[in-house]
Amino acid sequence: MSIAFLLTTLVVVVTPGTGVVYTLAAGLSHGRRASVVAAFACTLGTVPHVVATVTGLAALLHASAVAFEVVKYLGVAYLLYMAWSTLRDKEALVVEDAAAGPQPVGRVIVSGVLLNVLNPKLTMFFVAFLPQFVPTGQEGSVAAMLRLSAVFMGMTFAVFVAYGLCAAAVRGHVLGRPRVMAGIRRVFAVSFLGLGAKLAVA
User: Fold this and answer.
1) What radius of gyration do the chain's Cα atoms show?
2) What are phi and psi of 134, to 5 degrees?
3) Of 64, 66, 111, 186, which is most buried by a Cβ count within 10 Å?
4) Shortest CA distance to 111 belongs to which of 188, 54, 52, 177?
5) Domain extent listing, the chain
6) pLDDT digits over 151-177, tens only?
7) How far apart are the C-alpha atoms of 144 and 150, rounded to whole Å?
8) Rounded to whole angstroms, how far apart are CA atoms 77 and 73?
């Protein structure tokens, strides 16, 4: 495993995107437990991309403009939905006190997984980047791709957990400040909207 692979993967993972925004929102609104669950969900959302790449489905998306556009605009639609729901549903970003019940794990996982499943950038990452570090025409190429994918997923989880825990650490400073929370809600809504717009014109 080369240093170039590790460094490039780290840059891709650290760069803020939909998963980072979602994990930050979970940590800020519901604390450390929710942030770790969100990070796990976003990491789990990369599994279909790995499977698609290994089985050759990603190559079809890469070759077929129609298939890629369908996936892309499904992702755009979901990002726009996340922006709308974040702005509309005040319970989606509320700092809870100690007596409040925890955020349902299922809801956090489903949203996180969908965000990354509908992210065509991940498929393009596995199609365009991973093969450069996998020996072609040799035995063990599938195993090598799976190992590299596992490293990518592990790095994704670690970085996202760090983002989420940092957000959870400052959530106490916004307790009892509804105006601050309203402003943060708008920031996350605009972030999802901006990411959706960026994906739409990519």
Assistant:
1) 18
2) -115, 125
3) 111
4) 188
5) 17-201
6) 999 999 999 999 999 988 887 776 556
7) 10
8) 6
Q: Environment class of residue 62 by beta-carbon count within 10 Å: exposed (0-12), middle (13-18) or buried (19+)?
A: middle
Q: Which two tokens stand for residue 173?
A: 């400073």
Residues 6+ apart with CB under 8 A from 125: 12, 49
| Higher local confidence (pLDDT), 155 or 89 | 155
Query: Among all chains, which residue has been given the structure tokens 């997923």?
Result: 153
Nearest to 199 by CA among 49, 17, 16: 17
Strand (E) positions, 22-181? none
Q: pLDDT band for 94, please (50, 70, 90 cuts).
A: very low
Q: With 60 as the cut, is the pLDDT of residue 117 above it? A: yes
